[in-house]
Amino acid sequence: GDASEGKDLMAQFKVAAKAIASDEKIALLGAIQSLFEGSMYTFVFLWTPALSPNDEDIPHGFIFATFMLSSMLGSSIASRLLARKMKVEGYMQIVFLISAFTLFLPVVTNFIVPPAEKGSSISFGGCLQLLGFCIFESCVGIFWPSIMKMRSQYIPEEARSTIMNFFRIPLNLFVCVVLYNVNAFPIAVMFGMCSIFLFIAAILQRRLMFVSDLHRATKATEMTAEDEPLNP
User: What's the CATH number where 183 sits?
Assistant: First the structure.
């Protein structure tokens, strides 16, 4: 019944919480994914008003298709990187930093580039932002296969879905808060916040690489010690 299902759900979340608390790598990976996804979902709702702050006439369909093409390009780049056995923890730091820069562009253009006339075509600042947004979508395309690779490395399969759902709770709360207050803050502030989140994700990714390398080195040392013959 509902009571037993509720108990099972609570038991699963307890297992997830225990796994997160006992393994820093899982906690870091979950935080990284939440920060990136939170920025990505916020971007989905804000790109239209960012490109047309004065009701500029922008080709929404063409822009969306360009975003999808950029995302496909990112996925293709990710498949090549993974095929070359490149270290995911290494190149994802660069991806997060690039993402942070691209979502900071609306903040810069808001202060530097003069606004377009009301009802005109897309402004020069809008074109710069569009270029940055396409690069961000490419980073999104790289992100998904790369985060899945890291999940398979660090999160036990039997608890993987529960652990990731655990991290989606604050993510969904954040997105709801942003959407509820979308008119309370300027768009530049929202994008600045997303840029900060992505920069934090890059820092956490570097920490994850350090912890992962340390864990591998410790494990290798232990295996070497076990293989060495005992002194007579």
Answer: 1.20.1250.20
Structure-token match 């005992």, residue found: 230
pLDDT bucket at 203, cuts 50 / 70 / 90: very high
Q: For residue 55, count other CB atoms closer than 10 A to its CB.
A: 12
Q: Is 70 contained in some domain?
A: yes
Distances (CA, A) of 119 to 61, 72, 126, 187, 188: 18, 32, 13, 19, 21
pLDDT averaged over every residue in the chain: 89
Expressed as residue numbers, the domain containing 179 is 2-207
pLDDT digits (tens, 9 = 90+) for 20-67: 888 999 999 999 999 999 999 999 999 999 999 888 889 999 999 999
Angle at 94 between CA 172 and CA 46, to 5 degrees: 40
Please provide the distance, in angstroms rounded to a whole number, between the alpha carbons at the two ends of the chain.
Answer: 64
Integer Cα distance of 198 and 122 in angstroms: 27
The count of structural domains within the chain is 1
pTM of the predicted structure, to 2 decimals = 0.89
Banded model confidence at residue 77, pLDDT cuts 50, 70, 90? very high
Tell me whether residue 217 is in a domain.
Answer: no
Q: What is the dihedral of CA 134, 207, 169, 39, to 10 degrees?
A: -20
At 198, is the secondary structure helix, strand, or coil?
A: helix
Residue 84 structure tokens = 């070359």
